[in-house]
Structures are given as C-alpha cells and as structure tokens.
Amino acid sequence: MTLAVDFLPPGRALRQQISDDDRLKRAVMFVVGIYLVIALAIPLFVMLSKSLSTYTFDLHQFEFQVSDESGGGWSDPVTAAALNTAIAAFPESDLEAGADGRLQAAKLFADFSFRSPVRYRIRGTSEEAHFLAGSQLVRGTEWKEYDSNHFRRVMLRPSRSVGLSNFTEYFSTPSLVRSIKNSVMIALISTAVTLTVAFGLAYALNRSRMRGKGAFKLIVTIPILVPSLLPGIALVYLFGNQGVFKDLLLGHSIYGPLGIVVGSVFFTLPHAFLIISTALSVADARHYEAATSLRASRWRTFWTVTVPGARYGLISAAFVVFTLVITDFGLPKVIGGQYGMLAVDIYKQVIGQQNFEMGAVVSVILLIPAFLAFAVDRMTQRRQVALLSARAVPFEPKPRRGFDAACFAFCSLVAIFVLGMIGMCQVAALVKFWPYDLSLSLRNYAFDLMDGGGWDAYYNSIRLALMTAVIGSLIVFTGAYMVEKTKGFGLGRGAFHMLAMLPMAVPGMVLGLAYIFFFNNPGNPLHGIYGTMAILVLCTVTHFYTVAHLTALTALKQLDPEFEAVADSLKIPFYKLFFRVTLPVCLPALLEIAIYLFVNAMTTVSAVVFLYATDTKLASVAILNMDDAGDIAPAAAMGMMIFYTNVAAKLLHAVVARLLLARTQGWRQVAQTAVPA
Amino acid sequence: MKHATAPAEPAMPVSANRQSERRPFLEISGLWKAYGDFVALRDIDLQVKEGEFVCFLGPSGCGKTTLLRAIAGLDIQSRGAIRQAGQDISRLPPAQRDYGIVFQSYALFPNLTIEKNIAFGLENIGRPRREIASRVSDLLDLVGLSSQGRKYPAQLSGGQQQRVALARAMAISPGLLLLDEPLSALDAKVRVHLRHEIKELQRKLGVTTIMVTHDQEEALSMADRIVVMNQGGIEQVGTPTEIYRHPRTLFVADFIGETNQFPATVGKGAQVEIGHTRFACAEHLLPAGAAVVAAVRPADIIPHGADAHRATGLEAVGNADNLIDAHVEDMEFLGMFWRTRLSAPRLKETPLVADFSTNAVRRLCIEIGSAIQVEIPQERLLLFAKA
Amino acid sequence: MPFSKAFLGAATAFLLASTAAYAEAELTVYTSVEAVDLDRYKETFEKAHPDIKINWVRDSTGVMTAKLLAEKDNPQADVVWGVAATSLLLLKSEGMLEPYAPKNVEALDPRFVDGDKPPSWVGMDAYVAALCYNTVEAEKLGLTPPTSWKDLTKPEYKGHVVMPNPNSSGTGFLDVSAWLQTFGEEEAWSFMDALHENIAAYTHSGSKPCKMAASGETVIGVSFEFPGAKAKTSGAPIDIIFPAEGSGWEAEATAIIAGTANLEAAKTLVDWSISKEANEMYNVGYAVVAYPGVAKPIENLPDDVAEKMIENDFEWAANNRARILKEWQKRYDAKSEPKS
C-alpha cells in the first residue's frame, strides 16, 4: 500500500553531472551574455552614475592673500569659504555648477575695485583646485599674484563631486520640466489617434470583403522603411509656411504638437496595425455566431465581442506606440518647433550645450516611462499568448456592400495619407528650389556638396546595415538558442533573458549617450572601437536586440522540444544538431531577423547620433544634419534613398528567402501538399 | 470457489527481484522528485529485468512521464538512485546513458529525409557509409517502410512517422528503449495496429522496453508487467492479469476496467455486509466490522436465468447469498455487450451496472422492465480499505 | 653584376627613405569648415608640405566642441582648424591648447589673435551676423525691410522672424553675446524680450534661419552672411541686411592641441593657416579674413562687411557663456507653443 508521504527524505537534491555539451552551451551563452553586459548593462550603469556626477565650487580649495594699498604687507591667507561666510557673496545655490561653471574671485572681496593699487594672491590648497586667469587655466598650490585689474579676471572653476544636484537643477528649470508633460501629452494623443486609425484599418482588412487588401497591407507598412525624420520633412512641405496644403490648417502651425502628432501617427501606424491585425485575425467565429443567434445588433456585437477579443492586442499596441513616440527624437527635432520634448532635450543638452551630465539626467527621466510601458506590455503579452493558444474557428467575413465600401474608403484615405507623405518627399527632393523654382533637377542629390556626410554617409549606412544584419542575427540567434535549449542553469538563463529584454525599454538616445560615457573613457580597454564602425554596429545590434531575440525565441519554441532529448539519446552533440537541424529549420526566422535589423539600421537616428565619426557618418544622421543646416530638400532626397534601399532590401529578402526555401527547405513545400496515409 | 481463467500466478503480486536469478537490468531505488513544494515522485522502487516490456500506467499527472524522464536523465530525480546494467547512472547526463527514446510528438527532424533521420545517430558515431546504408535499410524493412526512405517526415502519416521514430531510436542498438506515450497522437485504428507491431518488434529484438501510457487497454495488451502509478507513487506492479484480476487498491480496480462500488462493512470470515444484506466475498485481510468499499466489475455480474450457467460459462451458483433480485432500469447497446443498469432492493438505492453478453441478453430475454436475478460471484466481490 | 646591385640597393634605400619622409607626419585635424572646401585646403597644404598628411575629422561646431571636450583627458586631435574662437576659448580654459605664436602672427588683424602671449589660438576668417530677408514673401505680407536689430521688435514682424537657439547654435550665441555687449545687459534683455514676441521659431543651427527665409518658410532669418550669399546665388529671392547697430561675429580659428605627438607638423600647419595664401583661399567663402588687405568682395555681399563687425570680447563671452545661456533658457526656452 502506498502511503502518501509528502516530504522528501532529508539530503541534498541530486545534481546531474554536467556534460561537455552543457559546458559548451553555457560557455557560448556566457559569451553572448557578456556581450549584452558590455554593450548594455555597464554603459547604462555608467550613465546612471554620470547623472549623479556634479560640479561644485569647493571654496575650501582656494586661499587668498591681500596686500595693503602700497602693494606690500600681505594679509594672512584666508580661504574663499571663510570670505564667503563673512560677506555672503555667493548663496549656496550658486555653488552648484555645471562643468563650465565659473565664479569671479573678486566678488569675494566687498571693497574690490579694479582701479585700486591693492594686489591679490591666490592659490589652491590641493592639486585638484584650478582657476582661470583670464582664459588661462591655472592649477596647483603655488601662490599666484595679480594686480587688481587682472584679479577681476580670475575665475574659480568647480570640481567634480557626487550628488543629486543635477536632478535638483533639472526640476527647477521650467523649460525642462515642461518637456516631461509635453512628451507624455504628445505620446498619449498620438497613441489614441494611431490606435483608432490602426484599429479601423485592421478591422477593415480582417472583417470586410473589400478589394485591394494586399495593396493596403503593403502600403501601411511603408513607414517602417523610412527614418522618423522623413514624415517631419514631408509635413514641412505639405503644411509648412510654403506648404501645398497650408490653408487646410486654418492658420495653425504645423511646427509643434500638431506636426509631432501627425508625424507620429505616420511612423507608428505600421507597428500598431500589425499587432492589432494579429489580435483581430485570431478572433473566434463561434463568438460571432453566438452573437448573431442572440440577435445582437452589429454595434453591440462590436463592443461585446470584437473589442474585448482584441483587447490585449490593443493594450500591447498602445504601449508600443506610446514608447515609440515618447522616445523618438527625429520627428520632434524636425517638426517640433519650440515644443520641448524629452528626447530632443537630451540632444540639445549634449550637442548644443556639451552638458553631458544634464543629458544623463534627462536620459534617466526618459527611461522611466519607457520602462513602465515595457513592464505593462510584458504583462499583457503573457496573457495574449494564452488567448492565442485557445482553439478558435477562424472568422470568415461575409460580403456586405455598404460596409465594404466604407472600409475601402477608409483604407484609401489612410493609403493616401501614407503615400502622400512619401510622395511629397520625393517631389520635394526633385524640385530645384522650392517654392520659387519648381523645375525638376537632381541638384538635391549632390550630397557631397552639403554638410552631413555626402554620398559616403549613404554607403556607410549600407555597410552598417549589412554588418548589423549579419552579425546581429548570428549573435541574437545563438543567444536565443542557448537560452531556449540549455537545460538547468536557470539562474543564468533567467539573467540572460532579462538582459535580452532590456534593450526594448532603453531609448536609442539614452543608449547612445551611455556609449559615449562608457566607451569614450580612455581607461576602457574597448576605447579603441570609439569612433569606428564597430561601435555603431554594436550599438545598433543592441538597440534592436529584443525584437530580434523574441523572433528567434518564437521560432525556436515552435521546434519540437524533444529534438534535444532525441539528439542526446543518439549521442549527437548539440552543435551538430544545431547546424544540421535547428538552423536550417529556423532559416526563415533568421532571414526575418536579418531584414529587420537591416531596415532598422538604415533608418535609426537616435541610437547613433552621438556615436558616428567623420568617416562613419550615416545617411539617417545626414538627414538630421542637412535638415539642421536648413538643407531640407537634400534631406528629403537622402530619406528617399533610404526608402528605396529598404524597399530593394525587402524585395531581395523575399527573393532570397524563396530561393533558399526552395533549395534547403523542400520538406516545407511537401509538408503542405502531403496527404496523410 | 474457482474461477474460469484461473491463472497460474499466485494471488498476490510478487516483487520482481524475488523472481530474477541475477541482478535486474534496471534498478530504481528510493526515487523522489520534487518541483518546489510539489512532490511528483515519491519513494519509487522498481526493478526491470532484461528483455522485459514494462508499462507505466496511470492518469495524467501521476508521475509516470516524470519517472521515464528521470530514467532518461532528461529531468533528474531529487533523491534516489538508478542503476542500469550494473552501472550507477543516477547523475549521468542523458548523452552518457544507453537508451533510445520515442516521443508522442515523434520529434523527427523535419528537414531530413527518413533515411537521414535514421542515419543521423549512426553517422555521428562514425560508422562507415556502407554499414550505415545497410543498417538503415534493415531498420526501414523492420518497420515496414522500405520504400519511403527518401521522403520527408511531413509526407508520412502519423503512424508511419512513429515507426520512423522507433527505427531511429533502435538504430544505435540501445540497451533500453523508452517510449513516451508513443501512440497517443494517433487515431484509434492506427493505434491498435501499431500496438501489435511495437510489441512484436520488441520481442524480436529483445530490447528492454519501458513505455508510458495512460491507456489501460494499451498497457494490458502490450506489457509483460504493468506499473500502475497514482499521485507520484506506485500503486501496484504486476502482470496484466494480476492487475486486472487482483487489484490491490481501489484506485487500481477503478482505473483498470470499471467497478461497481458499495459502501460496506466487513463481516465474519469472507463475508461482507452491503446495506443490510450479507454477501460472500473474496479472501481478504481486513478486520471484521471495518467500514470498507466492496467492488465488483460490471462484466463479472452473471445474469441468472434458466440457461444462466451455460450462457456465462460459469458453474452453477454455490452461494445463494450472492444471488439478488434486480429490476432492469435501462439498457445501452455497446456492440459487444449490453450495458445494463439494474436496481436491486437488497443493494438499497445504489444502482448496479452490469455488462451482459448479447448472447445472454437474447437467451434470457432481458429487456428494460424485466425482473431478473443476477449473481455477484464470490471471488469477484473485492473488498478495499476506504481511500 | 656589382653595379646593378649597388644601384638597386641605392634605389631601394632612396624609395624607402622617401616614403618614410612622405609619411613622416600625419595630422589628425578637427574642423568645422564647410565640407566642400576641405579638399581644396588639404591639396594646397600638402603640395606645399609633402611630408605632412592631413586627416580631416569634420563636424558642425557644436558637435566638434562636444567631441573635443569629451576627449579632454585623451585628446585624439593634433590640431583644431576652423572652429569657432569661442569654442577654442572653452578648450583653452580646460588647458587643452598648446600656446604657439605662428610665423608672421603680427601681420594679422589683432582682433583675430588670442590676447595671451604666446597666443593659444589664431583666427582665420570671420562670419558676421546678418539678416536674410525674403522679398517675395515680404511683399505678399506688405512688410518693409528692417534696417536695425531694434526694428525686429516691430509688431508687423510678429511670427515672421526665425533665429538660432543660442543654446545649440554658435551663431545664436554670438548674436546674443553681441547684443549684450553693444546694448548693455539690461537693455539687451528687454530687447530680446520684445524680439521673443516676434520669433516664430528658434532653430538648432545658425544657417537654418537663412535657408528658411530663402525657401519662404519665414520672412526674416537671423543668421550670418555666408549662407545668405550662397542662397541668393542659387536663386533665392532674399536680401542680406546688416543691421545698423553693428553685427556680432565669430572668428574661425586654429589651435594646437596640447600634448600632440606631432608638434612640429602642427606648427607648420598653423603657420600655413595664417599665411596670405591661405587667407586668400578663405576669401572664397568668407568676406572677412584675418589677414588685412586680402579680402576681395564676395558676390551678393557688400564690400564693407568687416566694418559692420562690433568689438567682440571673446574672453568675456566665454567666461559669461554659462550664465548667459542659463538666463536665456530661463526666459525663452520655456516657450511651449509656437507662434503661428
């Protein structure tokens, strides 16, 4: 008789001997993990610490002596701190400074006059102390003597310390704080609009029998192929002060929130559409049959069946769009006018003011909404999976003339919106001198005559995209394989998976800035890659790691989980299984990852804008710089070059995928035609 | 009292090690497996002889697959030892153990042809090409797929794919063959067919085999011995007839075949009181006066009429106590037999389900509403301690 | 044959020596000079000094300055060439520049030379603040051209003025610093308060306002003279206006980075940079160059651009930069809604 004893006998849990296979897998996973640590975790950590790195005037570090009227008879040395205590020349808040802060030493002397014959001596009390005499930097503990006219040009310099004063300063600067509100507002509005449009599109494409579905699906994905700067440029030409449809705005300016929202809707539409469309396409026809049999009205059915069924898709899409908009930098840069946005603030602080510490502060703040969105998205995704795995009968729409016509009209409007933006850019790129000379010319394609990097930038982008695609898909796939197919080692796998999910929550600008802090440190042994193509590849692969990782993971999860067990029983080492079976079977997913990385490497601006060097300028950055310099038409032309390149890459991908499938995946086609005996 | 198919085995199951003269091929002792707080396997002791076909049988979640995976090294046990062919394999990684395995999902490599699938393991151990080719064609012959070698798995039916999986597992001539619900994904007809093929193949090759299944019919028809498992523990180990005829627990009785169950009280000797009626029952070790469950299988109930003895092939009834009046409430035709629901005043409200052969029903003119007499044979009325 | 062997040996030695000499010094030169012009400068310089090779690293002034400051502890450049003097002063205050008095430095306009002796930087040319005024759009709106900075605050220009943001643009900063220097602090800020009312947008770069005026996106672009002349040449309907109060200006200057391994070659380049020959080349784009008497008039620009320039105290500007920008940001950056 078995008696239920629910307690394990005492002792330690048995551990399996680790096979050479496992050792190798763990080693490979460790290597990819180290990659993520170096390319992501450490730079972010360095950036966080940078945001706490402040500059303060340490008045104890300076000592003064004052002479009498004759220029002799020196007073006893007195520290600046003591002087300041005596006459309160500088309030506490003045002592917190940026990297380029200066304090005029003469202000510490109440009776200072640059005409007086009194002479002054100043020295540092430590080697750290430094001050400016005029524009000359002076360090050290030697006494330096100045007459009063020169002493008025003595400026104390701050020294490094650690503290929260950067954050204090941030939150006491109204223009910066307003950016938080602005960014959240814009992201919310854009999300609402995009979701509505994307839902309408997805609904029309899944639930109607209208014509031209294929074409609409293609058109709506176009925005993925262009940098987010491009819709901004298109809007300038469409609705700017010389815009074709300026009058439609009834006097409102496109520069500012309006432009950002319209542009955001453009470039986030495909992302939202794909997610919602997937959610709608798995709808269960049985629910609709039930609704019909209950004689529910269409309206009621829509709200009680359709919307709840797609709710996880909607939530997920909402967070994706929200994150994209709030972290995007290109669009508000081009069309945002004076409307402050967080991502642009980072750029302004770093490039405009060389205030890296404040850039780091804004980065930290921008990480918060992105992380929140990311966390909520992960939680809903988990439930969505459960929804997907339920057995459902696919819904087959029936033709309804009026409804189909309405759907067609709506989709046409969206298509016109998308094509209109792209078309406008192409026209602008070909016009000689908008709006005064509308004759056609290729002048705007003479990139070598503009700032921004010329045609080399375009070729660099292609190089970057190719390297990112090849190297990235290998790293990502290998990493995903090790996570998915390694036994035990739960802690390591969990940590790895978390690292792999992290890039999704890190805005490109933040990553780029973190890279400056980390790689541009001469003490870093990897400092050598700073300013090379390698750091751009590293940054781009890391920036787009998560989606690629999830794609690889999905493909790997679809494989029979027992392949490894079978291979083990047949004594086949894992790498043989990997190269003979796993990799060939997952080839379509691998190609998918490669093209994803390629397209994104072509269009990304934010991740690389801090990292490119003169000989590694990129097409997307060139657009930014040309637009910055006011060369908008060439910027549009370069944007269209990226677009055509991505279209070509997509076509090539389709052809290569088909050829490869035909050659190496014969089993797939036969699988479709197989007749079970 | 004797019964018709009285097998040679003793009434109580005998543990395997008493029977075997040398060390068992596979020896599991004190095996536990826990996932966090959940105990999936509790104190498993089991011996498997060389060349034996053993089935792990039980409902889902009983731990049978966990046990198989522990033997394969795919999920290592928390406590306890496993020895195979005299070697302690408790902590060895799967690749260092000696077995072939077949899964419910077949797990055939989809991008390799049937031949390549079977040859993969052989190529890996560096056998000459010609030897591999001939071994592959032998194996394909063995599983009756000689002409299909160039096809891809997706081009074969489920049953064919499972045969390929079997051939692949056998290719490297493992000492142990592990089958994890190999037939569950197949439809009924193919399943029955493949059942026999696997059994025959196993007999031919003499490979020690462990199969996990939740299908009692499969276990009864294929296994030399069945290990019935429930809630992480072994309920009973025995030959199919032992398990069927002499279930040691109510769980086994109920899981293998069906039973009518009555709350009862143990009487003197081989007697039991159901309701207020005494019945003679099978030998048991339970103390008099204990509250127990009395069980009888529907198929064991004998309809009593003029030709009853002949119809059921049983001797004349010896104990009048076990003969009860019953009223036919309902009848359901199930092809081979009639499932009949009876009510009997002596059993109070508890309905009695009996399976009567078509033959008996015709001869005794049993129909809904008939009043008949049925007999619960003494040897077939089993007592179990309350669960 | 001994002769040919000797000859071969000598030839090899000569070749080795000459290639070695040829690659004797490679200078990494950070610059913000227009990309189009760089090849021209490099070619001319390398022809005169075949033993020195220039590797340009080019970016806009803001980016270049950020890059140089970021590399403070581990400089990558040998020479900074054609970067705003204000930026070089920032570098100087970090102790990053190697003081050096180039040959003939006394020949230069003293406004273009660092005040310290020896100077840490020497100027090459100047860009001068100017207004780009779109005549076509102005006519449509019935506007009259402004003649002074103060004119820009007239209500008629409301929403028609674009200027660079001093926080991100060197041109923007030179405008603000010039107003503060010419009007005095108090008056300058109240001028900017009034100007702010008319501003349609603050751009990130200094040339953009002019290009926006050229394409009619705005009527008046506060910018500098060079992009205006260029746009006008390529057909834009704009006038270039130098306001009556005088214009702020910025010198493009050159300096040696302290600690360079190629000090001699760097000095050679700086010597060349202030030569008459080089200054003549700067004159292709810039109306004002450091070498007196060299500049010839530029198409679409008046002859007397140099006279529009105010007295500019670079040191004051550099030392007060942080304070000015903070004040500016406090006053105007908070502007959340653009004017339509």
UniProtKB/TrEMBL annotation, chain A:
Pfam families: BPD_transp_1. InterPro entries: AminoethylPonate_ABC_perm-1, MetI-like, MetI-like_sf. Its main location: membrane. It is found in: Cell membrane. SUPFAM superfamilies: MetI-like. It is a multi-pass membrane protein. It comes from the Bacteria. Keywords: Membrane, Transmembrane, Transmembrane helix, Transport. The keyword Transport applies. Belongs to the binding-protein-dependent transport system permease family. This is Putative 2-aminoethylphosphonate ABC transporter permease subunit.
Automatic annotation (TrEMBL), chain B:
Keywords: ATP-binding, Cell inner membrane, Cell membrane, Membrane, Nucleotide-binding, Translocase, Transport. Belongs to the ABC transporter superfamily. InterPro entries: AAA+_ATPase, ABC_SmlMolc_Importer, ABC_transporter-like_ATP-bd, ABC_transporter-like_CS, AminoethylPonate_ABC_PhnT2, Mo/tungstate-bd_C_term_dom, P-loop_NTPase. The keyword ATP-binding applies. This is Putative 2-aminoethylphosphonate ABC transporter ATP-binding protein. Residues 26-256 form the ABC transporter domain. SMART domains: AAA. GO terms for biological process: quaternary ammonium group transport. The keyword Nucleotide-binding applies. It holds the Pfam family ABC_tran. It comes from Sinorhizobium medicae. PROSITE patterns: ABC_TRANSPORTER_1 (PS00211), ABC_TRANSPORTER_2 (PS50893). GO terms for molecular function: ATP binding; ATP hydrolysis activity. PANTHER family: PUTRESCINE TRANSPORT ATP-BINDING PROTEIN POTG, SPERMIDINE/PUTRESCINE IMPORT ATP-BINDING PROTEIN POTA.
UniProtKB/TrEMBL annotation, chain C:
Residues 1-23 form the signal peptide. Pfam families: SBP_bac_6 (PF13343). CDD domains: PBP2_Fbp_like_1 (cd13544). GO terms for biological process: thiamine transport. Gene3D superfamilies: Periplasmic binding protein-like II. InterPro entries: ABC_2-AEP-bd (IPR017663), Ferric-bd (IPR026045). One of its GO terms (cellular component) is outer membrane-bounded periplasmic space. This is Extracellular solute-binding protein family 1. It comes from Sinorhizobium medicae (strain WSM419) (Ensifer medicae).
